[in-house]
Amino acid sequence: MQKREVSIRNYQPVNASYELKTHLLNSFYALTIARMYTFLLAKRVCLILSLLIFGVLVHAQELFKVETTTAAGFYQEPVAVNLVAPSDAVIYFTTDGSVPTKTSKRYTKPLLIQSSVVLRAVAYRNTTRSKEWIATYFIQEPSTKFATVSLAIDPAILFDPDFGLFMDGSSAIDSIWSKPGANFWSRDEFPMHLEIFEADKTCIFSSDAGFRLFGGFSRLFPQKSLTLITRESYGESRINYPIFGANGADKFKFLVLRNSGSDFGKSHFRDALMTSLVENWDIETQDYRPAHVYINGDYWGIYNIREKINRYFIESHSKVKRDSIDLIEHRDVLKLGSRLHYKHLLNFLERSPMIIEGNYEYAQSLMEVDNFMDYQIAQIYFDNQDAGGNIKFWRPRRANGRWRWILFDTDWGFGLHDQYAYKSNSLAFHTDINEKEWPNPVWSTFILRKMLENPTFKSTFVNRFADYLNKDFEADRVISKIDSFYQLLHEEMPRHFKRWNLSAATWEKQVALMKDFAEARPEHVRMHLMDMFETGNQVNVNLESTQGGKIQLNHHVEITNSFSGIYFENYPIHLAAIPHYGYRFSHWEGLPDDLSATTASDLPVSSQLQRFTLPLYQRNASLKAVFEPYQHPLMDQVVVNEISMNNKQSGDWIEIFNRSKVRVDLSGWIIGDTKHEFILPHITIGPKDYLVLCQDSAKFFKVFPNAYNVVSGLSFGLNKHEEHLQLFTNDGAMVDSLHYQLPPSDSSTVLSLLLPNLNNANMDNWSIRQHVGTPNAGNPYYIESKIRQEQQLWMQVGAACGIILICILLLVWKHQQNIRLKIANGTNVAKRQKLTS
């Protein structure tokens, strides 16, 4: 055997034990890492395989399903419904709302539907079950102007004698009126199928969903309120439709079908009426819409569709992220977030005298006082006897987040249980200091009592209550609201009465009782205010505003024409004359001689009495605010020169041109249409120069990279059909105004003033083009006209030169003719001899 030489260099003695340990440790690490990667790889493979299998199953289920050519909806005659599934599948169906199984009726031929029904069907291929198909067919149902809601719920969930949600159940204690232990006190969630049809019969939503029973003691009524819940696990995660119209939210995870609460069997719209009276106040309220509801094809009466108050409601009404709020109900039942900030508020109020203005100011940093004041005024006027502890309030969970109160569940108001409730001293009720559990425990009146210790709050509270009694709670307005609800419901209610064995006469009586409340309530509330706050005599106040401005009364009531109201002798009112853009305040007519006048730093002041406090020491006070037109010296000198609307490439933009010979400071100027306004930042525009206002600078500069003097962030878009644009200086003087009306067009449109010196209020002076426009440059017609002017000028110069040349030639020719004439007359000219005259 051949020997091999082995060379060992840089030999270092090594401890054998250490080397073995190191080797084993490295091997262990390597094995562990290998196992980890193997595990992760296996996990990924399993996940991928699971997803593939799930996808195949879902795809198979999608391919394997029950279908029909007869759409769900409304039919005036019986309708035949033909169900279709793969030929090797068997269809089973139910018509009572129960979930179909292999024990259900087998489908063999088209089904003749002769009455309203929920049809549920499923197909089986051996042991494989298709996705369930569900549809509601309304047959010969009365016409309606309401929406219709259909619920498909397994009947056992509702009507099983032992556990059905609409049943008392075996655990109910009948000896107590509230029946504790009854099934209808359940708060569990159950599956269903939900269909919503618009008033025009179109289906706007159809998906599996969930539901829970809703409400307090109103669960005792036979028509029970329900919460509707959408989840991705059921099907659709949201109802993506503006249920309450264009001004409401456009998507919902929760909705409430409300039986009108304690108002069931009475007016059926009390709560909706009261919240509608304050819908423009600084309070979150629930939207309302009545609907006919069917459960498993059976008519279930009229329900009030309402929003559910939770974090999703707050997010849609306040634009605060739903996971960034604190929400509490009743005394301190935490629904979301934390109680700490609220406890800090209560502790501060408990230990701090509110008569000290600094304490009141700090309280304002913890709670939105205007919101709280409006909430309390509403509940007191309504005489809501269930408002004490039945409250919900929230705040944005941030350093400066302040508490706000939500108005809801007001149906114990407006004389629900007392035809003489308009006399009720709810002011004393909501400031009661006597210990009781219900309906107004002392803790529920604590905050209002503490805030009324402060003179500023008390004065504002009295005057604001008077404002609302004169405007929003004025008897004719409230009665008109009641009439509108009556007109909305009266043709639809007979079906509801019949379904629940209710009396139409009772309904009519309740509506009349509410009108009586509306008529008499303001007088009694004023008496209660006078007693508690020692207001002195009532004073009749008459205010009038001329064209061009408005009067602001007590900082929040706006009067554009005339106003009459009742206030109190010991509580002066605050008035301000506010001119519209293009006008300025001139003077007051009817002013008393002795007034404490103040000026407003944020308004143009042409009189020291533009804003002042009016003492009410006389029984009658009548004033008129007079305004006059106000045009700036630069009127028609700084003008809108070009407008681009409906432009998807560059975004909408407006070009302004300075016709004058001086640089103009546009800082704080306002440009707007009838609904929006945009305040210009600190910027100037040179003489004969341009300024461009655009919505989106990134899009604008992509199309116009060489543009200059551009202001981004224009806060409103431009209507492609009609718009009224106005330009004002920072003190409200009008500088420019124009109104355009254009024919319908789907493409982007540019309006260009033909010439910079033309009147831009005259649409004949504009050109309409479908192109990108010419910001920071002369408009196309202007450029063309300049070229034509130059061409005409040179043509005129050329013509003049031609005429001069012709004249010169004529003079030369004439001179030559004279010379020839003399020669012809006999003059002898010798060779090389000069001819002289």
Distance between the termini: 146 Å
**Arrangement of strands in the largest sheet:** 11-12-13-14-15-17-16
CATH homologous superfamily grouping of the domain at 638-778: Lamin Tail domain
| Mean pLDDT score | 88
CATH architecture of the domain at 638-778: Sandwich
Helicity range: 25-40%
- Number of extended strands: 42
Gross geometry: globular
Strand content: 25-35%
Biggest pleated-sheet summary:
7 strands, mixed, barrel
CATH-defined topology of the domain at 638-778: Immunoglobulin-like
Compute the number of helices.
15
Low-pLDDT stretches are 1-40, 56-61, 596-608, 829-837
Question: What does the model show?
Answer:
With 837 residues, the chain is α+β, with helices and mostly antiparallel strands. Among the domains are: 538-628, no CATH class; 638-778, Immunoglobulin-like, CATH 2.60.40; 779-818. Helix content is 29%, strand content 26%. It is built from 15 helices and 42 strands. The strands form ten sheets. Strands 11-12-13-14-15-17-16 form a seven-stranded mixed beta barrel. Strands 2, 5, 6, 8, 9 and 10 form a six-stranded mixed sheet that branches. Strands 38-37-32-31-41-42 form a six-stranded mixed sheet, covered by helices on one side. Helix 10 packs antiparallel against helix 13 (504-533) and helix 11 packs antiparallel against helix 13. The longest helix is centred in the first third of the chain and has 48 residues, at 16-63. It is globular and about 140 Å long. The model is unreliable at 1-40, 56-61, 596-608 and 829-837 (pLDDT under 50).
